[in-house]
Design a protein that fits this description.
The complex is a heterodimer of chains A (121) and B (955). Chain A is mainly alpha-helical and 121 residues long. Chain A contains three helices and no strands. Helices cover 60% and strands 0% of the residues of chain A. The termini of chain A are far apart. Chain A has a domain of 84 residues. In chain A, helix 1 packs antiparallel against helix 2. Chain B folds into three domains: 271 residues, no CATH class; 257 residues, no CATH class; 210 residues, no CATH class. In chain B, a hairpin with a 3-residue loop joins strand 3 and strand 4. The chains are: A mainly alpha (121), B mainly alpha (955).
């Protein structure tokens, strides 16, 4: 099982990194979202994988073991923050397109942007 | 601190009041231009009033210390101190500050922003007070740097002028760099003494002077002093700072900014002085500065330039006195600080009046002003005579003491016979330039080609000068009844012992100092008479030496080096920068992996694999690879991303993390809707990249990262560890009153972290709102296939269904919220569910319809959320517990039964509101954008065929 999860994290990282290195804003946002997933699972896995353990304290019968709550708390806020960041980034991308007329990450329109150059064609 | 009486807290109030006053002054200018001047004057008087009760205690010989612990672990205290020296400076800062405020109110013209001016001035005043009243040295350095920053703002007040900006930058660079050196010096001092408290440092003079680190400490502290007080070789920033409005010059260069360095010399006098190093460094810099300043001042044509170099020269004089290192020299230095502050402030104000009334400051054009402004002329003549050291004026008294000390010093070594002679040379020039100031401006024929016809200034512009000149006279004629008491306490505060015997009498009989004064006066007049020849000689050579050229060259060189380093990494391309970051991370990881000898994987027992997991992970991998492979077709790529997110939430279910599963699920929905909305305004496809090399490079980097992370994760997962969660599991119920440990951690154990996180979320929401304000984007009127959008924006079936669903979804949100402390759920998840419920309404019914029914502004929701969360923490503080302490109790509700109420639920409510507010605001703002874009006339040139052709090309 550990291999399976590690591989999943690896694939998410690889695809995330590749997309992050693209030249257009939208793939970069997707890439960063994938990277965020990878990081979240990685963080979560730091508490080791546990299957079928209670996550909530049982007051009547004391269970011998619980799933590790600390990484869960960390990841929970990480998920929400990642959402905030994605939202901010994508709006930044929109703003950049509005101001610069293209969606290149550096604002340089090296290739055709199918809307700003439309009239020219 | 035993009891909280007024006299145990007034010092920090004095120092911090101007900072708060600055806010009011800036705000008041919105109501009325002059209101900000009133506020500034009132704040200054208030600060004086707060200081007043302590004055008697200082005169009684006490040293007042008021301190609070700040960061006790590193010996840092928030500590203030008032002794004689601090009192003298505080009074100078406040009294001259008040006069400058009155003066500036008339000096500034209608187009100058009063609010900005007085706000800066008050902030500067507060910083200066902070320096002189600090007991803790680190705290003093903070205020020291604040004076650099605020003086930058003041000098560059006329931002549209290039010379003002350049002069301000130069002052900031020099004094800021000196401040860094001072910080290092103070840290070393603290290291040697073992305390940053001035009281301890002042008591440890012997220890410091005998320590190996004495010389580094001395050099670093002196770098701070010399840069601030414009001592050679850092003196050149001061004349360039004359681009500031004249009230600023009058304040900064008479009583405050440049005196901060001198203050520090006086402060550390008992600790650092008395060694040959001190005498050489301080005395040498002082002597050179004294001479350069006095000489250069004579050749300035700008009145303020003359005063600037004269200030440099007088600062050199004071530094030289401290350099002599004797107690009597220190007395003379303190005395001259007072005298210089009074006559120089009045002279700067006169210069400002002349500039104000004639429109120029060029002494070649301003002549014969006596008959146009006789009152001002008399004031100026008295002040200038004080500057020259004419008897019956305050400058004379301290100059006599100075000559006497120079003579005393001449006995100390073989070389020192030159000191009195050089001192006389400087005095000769000081007489000559003072004479020039009087003669050139007020006599010497008629004015030449003035922009304005000169006349007397408004009455209140002269009153501050009147007062200062009266002080010059009073101190000069009856020193024993005016300046003696304050001088005595200031000297006692400086020396930290009983002051030596000294006499303030005007007449000491015929002695050598008197003869020196006489010689200086006569020769000074002679030099002025022969000025034509001297001017010609000066113009031909020395005049072209300008330290600014060197400064600019050094700064320019530094800039070029920094730029070339930056450019070799960052080529203005995000892709490039990302590659650097990721490659560095890879390299660091590689080095980390290879540098340890332990086996890569541990021996923890692996879990068995089951078929469903394999299937899920396989889907996850396929979906993420497809996200990448199809990334040119953005919509499909986004759908794939959604699949990835859903599988991840299933994974959380599998691995016993129900809270995470719920969060991930709801976030996923919101994210996909958001990205879909945004995608509408972005190109629907990504063009093919031309550079194959880059693609293959990125593939290599991506694969390496993936492999690296896999190995890293595996290396961790195959090892056992001792979790620290035991504490949370044990204390969750007894301490936090909740059985859902994850939620208790979020709202209780680590509540402050969560507060920070919702603040980030709130800021993201507000940032999105701000960015989308007034933005118009062209929206395509056809989809990727070239088809028109469906004209039925809000299908009726969907509308009906979602309206029915709304109460149900909100109910679930409330349920999830309430049970959060004990069962999976809580503010974050409930907030997301509620947000989805609202967003669905917006989607199916349109923004206008929904806004009509949802009458509250999301800004308020976010604000209230943060407020509630913070208030919950503060309530605990108010009850005497640490910030964010929670309490809980059990209530018996009818019907519901025994119910637990934890104060954490209020905090969670804050979280809930922020999440709802930020999420809904982001999405609705984006939605509005599409609304506006649709209402805007669509460009008629869109041709579906072109569009489709482009698609094909892109694919």
């Amino acid at each position: 099982m550990e291999w399976l999860i590690s591989l999943a994290i690896g694939v998410l990282t690889a695809t995330g990194v590749y997309l992050t290195l693209r030249a257009r804003t939208f793939p970069v946002v997707l890439g960063l979202t994938l990277l965020a997933y990878a990081v979240n699972i990685f963080l979560f896995a730091m508490g080791r994988l546990t299957v079928g353990l209670p996550a909530v304290i049982d007051k009547t019968a004391t269970a011998a073991q619980y799933s590790d709550p600390l990484p869960q708390a960390l990841v929970l806020t990480a998920i929400v923050i990642a959402f905030g960041m994605t939202a901010f980034l994508i709006v930044l991308a929109l703003k950049a397109r509005g101001e610069l007329g293209n969606d290149h990450v550096d604002g340089l329109d090296t290739e055709s942007d199918n809307y700003s150059n439309k009239e020219v064609k | 601190m035993t009891s909280l009486t007024f006299l145990s807290i007034n010092l920090p109030i004095v120092a911090l009041l101007p900072f708060f006053g600055a806010i009011f002054a800036a705000w008041a200018s919105k109501i009325n231009r002059l209101a900000s001047a009133w506020v500034a004057a009132f704040v200054t008087i208030l600060a004086l009033a707060f200081l007043a009760p302590s004055i008697a205690m200082v005169f009684a010989g006490e040293t007042l210390i008021q301190s609070w612990t700040w960061i006790p672990a590193i010996g840092l205290e928030f500590a203030f101190r008032l002794d004689g020296l601090a009192l003298l400076f505080a009074l100078l800062i406040l009294v001259i500050g008040l006069l400058v405020i009155i003066y500036a109110r008339y000096y500034l013209s209608k187009k100058d922003s009063m609010g900005r001016f007085f706000a800066y001035l008050l902030m500067f005043m507060g910083s200066m007070l902070g320096i002189v009243l600090s007991e803790n040295l680190i705290q003093m350095v903070v205020f020291w740097e604040l004076t650099s920053l605020t003086s930058f703002l003041l000098i560059s007040y006329w931002q549209y002028r290039k010379d003002a900006r350049a002069g301000a930058r130069m002052a900031l660079v020099i004094t800021g760099a000196g401040g860094l050196a001072l910080l290092a010096g103070v840290l070393l001092l603290g290291h040697v003494v073992g305390s940053y408290n001035l009281t301890d440092v002042l008591a440890a003079g012997e220890l410091i002077r005998g320590h190996n680190l004495y010389l580094p400490i001395l050099v670093l502290v002196l770098l701070g002093v010399f840069t601030k007080s414009a001592q050679f070789p850092f003196h050149f920033w001061l004349p360039h700072a004359m681009a500031a409005p004249t009230p600023v010059s009058a304040y900064l260069h008479s009583a405050t900014m440049v005196k901060a360095g001198i203050f520090l010399l006086a402060r550390f006098f008992p600790v650092l002085s008395g060694t040959p190093e001190w005498t050489w460094l301080v005395g040498g810099a002082g002597l050179i500065t004294l001479l350069i300043g006095a000489y250069t001042a004579l050749f300035q044509h700008d009145i303020k330039g003359l005063l600037a170099y004269s200030t440099i020269s007088h600062l050199g004089l004071i530094t030289l006195l401290f350099g002599f290192g004797t107690q009597l020299a220190a007395v003379a230095a303190i005395f001259h600080i007072i005298n210089h502050a009074t006559f120089k402030a009045s002279l700067f104000m006169v210069a400002g009046i002349i500039d104000h009334e004639t429109g120029t400051r060029d002494m070649r054009r301003i002549n014969g002003l006596l008959k146009y402004m006789p009152h001002t002329a008399i004031l100026a003549m008295i002040a200038a005579a004080a500057m020259a050291g004419v008897p019956l004026l305050n400058g004379f008294l301290s100059k006599e003491m100075f000559f006497e000390q120079a003579l005393t010093a001449s006995n100390s070594s073989v070389w020192a016979w030159a000191v009195p002679i050089l001192v006389i040379v400087a005095a000769v020039f000081s007489v000559a330039y003072s004479l020039r100031f009087i003669h050139d401006v007020f006599f010497n024929g008629e004015p030449v080609d003035l922009p304005k016809t000169p006349h007397e200034p408004p009455r209140f512009m002269k009153i501050p000068v009147d007062l200062l000149v009266i002080i010059c006279l009073a101190v000069g004629i009856i020193p024993m009844f005016t300046v003696a008491p304050i001088l005595a306490v200031a000297v006692a505060g400086t020396l930290q012992t009983t002051p030596p015997e000294y006499s303030l009498a005007i007449w000491h009989g015929f002695n050598l100092p008197l003869l020196m004064s006489f010689v200086a006066l006569v020769l000074g007049v002679l030099v002025y008479v022969m000025r034509k020849r001297l001017f010609a000689w000066h113009e031909s050579g020395v005049a072209h030496w300008d330290a600014r050229i060197i400064f600019n060259a050094v700064l320019g060189g530094l800039d070029a080096v920094a730029k070339s380093i930056t450019r070799s990494f960052d080529k203005g391309s995000l892709q490039n920068a990302s590659v650097w970051v990721i490659a560095t991370a890879l390299l660091a990881g590689f080095i980390g992996f290879t540098s340890v000898s332990a086996p890569l994987f541990g021996d923890r027992e692996l879990m068995p694999v089951d078929g469903v997991s394999v299937l899920a992970v396989a889907i996850l991998m396929i979906a993420s690879v497809l996200t990448l492979a199809l990334h040119r077709k953005r919509l499909i790529s986004l759908v794939m991303l959604g699949v990835v997110g859903l599988i991840i939430s299933l994974m959380f279910v599998k691995f016993s993390a129900p809270d995470l599963a719920l969060t991930q699920l709801s976030v996923e929905i919101v994210t996909v809707i958001l990205l879909l909305l945004a995608l509408y305004f972005l190109p629907q496809t990504t063009p093919k990249e031309t550079c194959d090399l880059r693609v293959s490079r990125d593939i290599v980097i991506a694969v390496l990262s993936g492999v690296g992370v896999t190995l890293l994760a595996m290396a961790v997962l195959t090892r056992d560890f001792a979790p620290i969660s035991e504490f949370f599991l044990l204390n969750s119920v007894p301490g936090g009153g909740g059985t859902n440990v994850v939620n208790v951690i979020l709202v209780d154990f680590r509540g402050t972290d969560t507060l920070g996180e919702i603040a980030v979320l709130a800021l993201a929401g507000l940032g999105i709102f701000a960015m989308l304000q007034g933005m118009k984007l062209h929206a395509p009127d056809r989809d990727t296939g070239g088809r028109l959008w469906n004209s039925d924006l809000h299908p009726e079936i969907m509308q009906t269904l979602t309206r029915l669903l709304l109460p149900l979804m909100l109910m679930i949100a409330i349920y999830i919220f309430l049970r959060g402390h004990n069962l999976p759920g809580g503010g974050f998840i409930a907030g997301l569910i509620a947000a989805v419920a609202l967003i669905v309404q917006y989607l199916s019914n349109g923004i206008a319809w929904t806004n009509d029914r949802l009458k509250f502004d999301m800004h308020w929701v976010i604000g209230f959320g943060l407020l509630i969360a913070t208030a919950t923490g503060l309530v605990a503080m108010g009850l005497g517990y640490p910030f964010m302490t929670t309490a809980f109790t059990y209530l018996n509700w009818p019907v519901v039964g025994k119910f637990e109420v934890a104060s954490a639920i209020a905090f969670d409510l804050g979280v809930f509101l922020v999440v709802v507010g930020a999420t809904v605001m982001s999405l609705v703002e984006l939605g509005k954008l599409s609304n506006e874009s649709h209402q805007a006339p669509v460009k008629p040139t869109t041709q579906p065929t072109t569009q489709r052709k482009l698609e094909q090309e892109a694919n």
